[in-house]
Amino acid sequence: MTRALFIIDVQNDFVEGGALGVEGGAAVAAGITRLLEAHRDEYSLVAASRDWHSGEHDNGGHFAVDAEPDFVDTWPSHCVADTPGAEYHPDLDTTGVDVHIRKGQGVPAYSIFEGTDDAGDRMSDVLAARGITDIDVVGIATDHCVRASALDAVEHGQHVRIFTDLIAGVAAESSEAALAELGHAGVVIADSTVLAGAAS
Ligand code: VGL
Questions:
Q1: Cβ 140 under 6 angstroms from ligand 1
Q2: For domain 3-199, which CATH number applies: 3.20.20.70, 1.10.10.10, 3.40.50.850, 3.30.360.10?
Q3: What is the pLDDT of residues 10-37, one digit of tens each?
């Protein structure tokens, strides 16, 4: 087994006080840092994604411009490239991150598989090059980017787990629905304490 960790969109705009702040986001950032302190060695690859939108236009309808956002398909302006809101939350220690994926440059992009790393490589190519077979997914938001990234990982033939203690969602109902959908798709719904018993 060759396992990767996906850290989805742990960015200032997605935590409390951010442009699209999600309740519990800051705690997720700190919790992922603790996971990495204890278990970094169990991962062959750690990949973190960031939404990286244009500040010039509506990013393909992703930003609500002339109407109120519906918080499903349209959103307040968030994670504009090179602004503080797009940076990783300071409680997330990124020193153990191997691959930084940016996505959403001018378009909506919920899944980490829609982005590229600093060399321009796509997530699927990086996984193939590293021989990854298993992926644990954590981050923000459960009902949007975490959901889309985990579903895509299954589509790419990965064995996927999601840690419910290290995710935070925009809304309770859609987050519950997302977890149910992920379970049906074959994602193992777990929490990070399963790592404590894992052989290292
Ligand atoms: C996200 C809403 C809009 C996410 C991104 O990271 O889950 N949610 N853009």
A1: yes
A2: 3.40.50.850
A3: 999 999 999 999 999 999 999 999 999 9
What pLDDT shows up at residue 200? 44
Domain-wise residue ranges, the chain: 3-199
Structure tokens at 172: 């309770």
Q: Single out the catalytic residue among 13, 51, 143, 145.
A: 145
Per the CB < 8 A criterion, the answer to whether 3 and 44 are in contact is yes
Residue-wise pLDDT tens digits, 105-122? 999 999 999 999 999 999
Tell me 14's DSSP state: G
Q: Which of 142, 124, 128 is nearest to 183 (CA)?
A: 142
**Sequence-ordered list of residues with C-beta below 8 angstroms from that of 107, at least 6 positions apart, any chain:** 59, 60, 62
Q: What is the SS3 assignment for 135?
A: strand
pTM for the structure as a whole: 0.97
As a whole number of angstroms, the distance between CA 166 and CA 146 comes to: 11
How much distance in Å is there from the Cα of 197 to the middle of ligand 1? 32
Structure tokens at 186: 């074959």
| The CA-based dihedral angle spanning residues 137, 138, 141, 147, taken in that order and rounded to the nearest 10 degrees | 20
Q: Which residue in the list 9, 51, 136, 152 is annotated as catalytic?
A: 9
Q: Which two tokens stand for residue 18?
A: 């951010």
